[in-house]
Specification:
By secondary structure, this protein is mainly alpha-helical. It has eight helices and no strands. The longest helix has 18 residues, at 54-71.
Length: 142
Protein backbone atom coordinates (compact mmCIF):
# COMPACT_ATOMS: atom_id res chain seq x y z
CA UNK A 1 0.00 0.00 0.00
CA UNK A 2 1.33 3.42 -0.97
CA UNK A 3 1.12 6.16 1.64
CA UNK A 4 0.35 9.71 0.65
CA UNK A 5 2.58 12.44 2.03
CA UNK A 6 -0.33 13.68 4.14
CA UNK A 7 -0.94 10.29 5.76
CA UNK A 8 2.79 9.74 6.33
CA UNK A 9 3.09 13.16 8.02
CA UNK A 10 0.12 12.35 10.26
CA UNK A 11 1.72 9.03 11.29
CA UNK A 12 4.97 10.85 12.07
CA UNK A 13 3.06 13.46 14.10
CA UNK A 14 1.56 10.64 16.16
CA UNK A 15 5.02 9.11 16.67
CA UNK A 16 6.29 12.49 17.89
CA UNK A 17 3.34 12.59 20.29
CA UNK A 18 4.48 9.20 21.65
CA UNK A 19 8.09 10.45 21.92
CA UNK A 20 6.92 13.43 23.98
CA UNK A 21 4.39 11.55 26.14
CA UNK A 22 5.63 7.95 26.57
CA UNK A 23 6.31 8.64 30.26
CA UNK A 24 2.60 9.14 31.02
CA UNK A 25 -0.21 6.66 30.47
CA UNK A 26 -1.33 7.03 26.85
CA UNK A 27 -3.50 4.74 24.81
CA UNK A 28 -4.08 3.96 21.17
CA UNK A 29 -7.15 6.20 21.06
CA UNK A 30 -5.16 9.27 22.14
CA UNK A 31 -2.32 8.47 19.75
CA UNK A 32 -4.53 7.79 16.76
CA UNK A 33 -6.34 11.10 17.37
CA UNK A 34 -3.01 12.85 16.74
CA UNK A 35 -3.07 11.39 13.22
CA UNK A 36 -6.81 12.03 12.75
CA UNK A 37 -7.32 8.35 11.96
CA UNK A 38 -9.35 5.53 13.49
CA UNK A 39 -7.46 3.35 15.97
CA UNK A 40 -7.50 0.35 13.65
CA UNK A 41 -6.39 2.22 10.53
CA UNK A 42 -3.71 4.07 12.50
CA UNK A 43 -2.42 0.84 14.07
CA UNK A 44 -2.06 -0.79 10.66
CA UNK A 45 -0.34 2.24 9.09
CA UNK A 46 2.00 2.79 12.07
CA UNK A 47 3.09 -0.82 11.86
CA UNK A 48 3.63 -0.48 8.12
CA UNK A 49 5.84 2.62 8.56
CA UNK A 50 7.79 1.67 11.72
CA UNK A 51 7.72 -2.17 11.51
CA UNK A 52 6.30 -2.39 15.04
CA UNK A 53 3.01 -1.68 16.72
CA UNK A 54 2.44 1.56 18.62
CA UNK A 55 2.46 -0.39 21.90
CA UNK A 56 5.76 -2.06 21.00
CA UNK A 57 7.21 1.37 20.19
CA UNK A 58 6.00 2.89 23.49
CA UNK A 59 7.38 -0.05 25.44
CA UNK A 60 10.73 0.24 23.64
CA UNK A 61 10.93 3.97 24.47
CA UNK A 62 10.09 3.29 28.12
CA UNK A 63 12.60 0.45 28.49
CA UNK A 64 15.38 2.50 26.86
CA UNK A 65 14.69 5.35 29.27
CA UNK A 66 14.54 2.90 32.18
CA UNK A 67 18.01 1.61 31.28
CA UNK A 68 19.37 5.16 31.47
CA UNK A 69 17.66 5.91 34.76
CA UNK A 70 18.70 2.60 36.32
CA UNK A 71 22.31 3.19 35.29
CA UNK A 72 22.08 6.42 37.33
CA UNK A 73 21.35 4.12 40.32
CA UNK A 74 17.75 5.34 40.75
CA UNK A 75 15.36 3.11 42.73
CA UNK A 76 13.33 0.72 40.57
CA UNK A 77 9.98 2.02 41.84
CA UNK A 78 10.99 5.59 40.98
CA UNK A 79 12.08 4.52 37.48
CA UNK A 80 8.82 2.62 37.01
CA UNK A 81 6.80 5.71 37.89
CA UNK A 82 8.98 8.08 35.87
CA UNK A 83 8.62 6.15 32.62
CA UNK A 84 4.87 5.69 32.73
CA UNK A 85 4.32 2.12 33.90
CA UNK A 86 1.34 1.78 36.19
CA UNK A 87 2.58 -1.39 37.87
CA UNK A 88 6.01 -2.45 39.09
CA UNK A 89 5.12 -6.04 38.15
CA UNK A 90 4.45 -5.31 34.48
CA UNK A 91 7.50 -3.06 34.32
CA UNK A 92 9.74 -5.76 35.81
CA UNK A 93 8.38 -8.44 33.46
CA UNK A 94 8.78 -6.32 30.33
CA UNK A 95 12.22 -5.08 31.40
CA UNK A 96 13.46 -8.62 32.00
CA UNK A 97 11.94 -9.80 28.72
CA UNK A 98 13.80 -7.02 26.87
CA UNK A 99 17.17 -7.11 28.63
CA UNK A 100 17.31 -10.60 30.10
CA UNK A 101 17.77 -9.16 33.60
CA UNK A 102 15.46 -7.93 36.35
CA UNK A 103 15.63 -4.12 36.84
CA UNK A 104 17.42 -4.31 40.21
CA UNK A 105 20.12 -6.60 38.83
CA UNK A 106 20.55 -4.37 35.77
CA UNK A 107 20.85 -1.28 38.00
CA UNK A 108 23.47 -2.94 40.20
CA UNK A 109 25.51 -4.14 37.20
CA UNK A 110 25.34 -0.70 35.52
CA UNK A 111 26.46 0.97 38.77
CA UNK A 112 29.31 -1.54 39.15
CA UNK A 113 30.42 -0.93 35.56
CA UNK A 114 30.48 2.84 36.16
CA UNK A 115 32.61 2.32 39.26
CA UNK A 116 35.04 0.16 37.26
CA UNK A 117 35.22 2.78 34.51
CA UNK A 118 36.26 5.33 37.13
CA UNK A 119 38.80 3.12 38.88
CA UNK A 120 40.18 1.28 35.82
CA UNK A 121 39.55 3.51 32.79
CA UNK A 122 42.04 1.69 30.55
CA UNK A 123 39.86 -1.43 30.65
CA UNK A 124 37.19 0.51 28.74
CA UNK A 125 39.45 2.03 26.07
CA UNK A 126 39.87 0.04 22.85
CA UNK A 127 43.34 -1.52 22.61
CA UNK A 128 44.11 0.27 19.33
CA UNK A 129 43.85 3.63 21.12
CA UNK A 130 46.06 2.45 23.95
CA UNK A 131 48.72 1.46 21.40
CA UNK A 132 48.32 4.52 19.19
CA UNK A 133 48.53 7.03 22.02
CA UNK A 134 50.92 4.94 24.14
CA UNK A 135 48.53 5.05 27.05
CA UNK A 136 50.10 1.94 28.51
CA UNK A 137 53.45 3.72 28.93
CA UNK A 138 53.80 5.73 32.09
CA UNK A 139 54.71 9.31 31.30
CA UNK A 140 57.74 10.75 33.05
CA UNK A 141 56.07 14.18 33.06
CA UNK A 142 53.56 13.20 35.74
Amino acid sequence: MHLTTDIYQRIVAAKIFIDENYHVPIDLEQISQQAFLSRFHFHRLFRQVYKKTPLQYITEKRIDRAKNLLSENKPVIQVCNEIGFESIGSFSLLFKKDTGFPPTYYRNMAWLKKQQEKSQPKKFIPHCFIDQYRLDKESNNQ
